[in-house]
């Protein structure tokens, strides 16, 4: 059974909720590439900051907290930048 309507689906515009969701997408698409690029290179550079902290030792609580915070940032950067420069 088909529903014959005098209007085709293309002539019906998106609802206001759909229009609101789609309004910000060009901005998101334009920022995705630079964000992946930056995340990729942050993930590459952060281990060079981890090494001096590890050589100093993690006995001091502030050094340990800094190391763990940098490690968390590195994990997030790895996740965000994993798709950089893939065809």
> What is the average per-residue confidence, as pLDDT, rounded to a whole number?
79
Order of H and E elements: HHH
In whole angstroms, the N-to-C terminal distance is 43 Å
Helix content bin: over 70%
Number-wise, the strands total: 0
Tally of contiguous helical segments: 3
Description of the structure:
This protein has helices spanning 16-23, 25-56, 61-81. The radius of gyration is 23 Å and the shape is elongated. Helix 2 packs antiparallel against helix 3 (61-81). The longest helix is centred in the middle third of the chain and has 32 residues, at 25-56. It is mostly helical and 87 residues long. Helix content is 70%, strand content 0%. The chain has 3 helices and no strands. The protein has a domain at 32-87.
Give the tags.
87 residues; 3 helices; elongated
Fold blueprint:
Elements: H1 16-23, H2 25-56, H3 61-81
Helix pairs in contact: 2-3
Biased composition (Polar residues): 1-14
Transmembrane segments: 35-55, 61-81
Keywords: Membrane, Transmembrane, Transmembrane helix
Briefly summarize what is shown.
By secondary structure, the protein is mostly helical. It has a domain at 32-87.
């Amino acid at each position: 059974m088909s529903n014959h309507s005098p209007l085709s689906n293309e002539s019906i515009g998106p609802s206001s909720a759909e229009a609101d969701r789609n309004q910000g997408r060009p901005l998101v698409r334009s920022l995705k590439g630079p964000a992946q690029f930056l995340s990729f290179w942050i993930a590459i550079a952060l281990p060079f900051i981890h090494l001096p902290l590890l050589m100093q030792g993690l006995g001091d609580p502030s050094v340990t907290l800094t190391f763990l915070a940098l490690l968390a940032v590195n994990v997030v950067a790895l996740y965000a930048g994993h798709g950089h420069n893939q065809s």
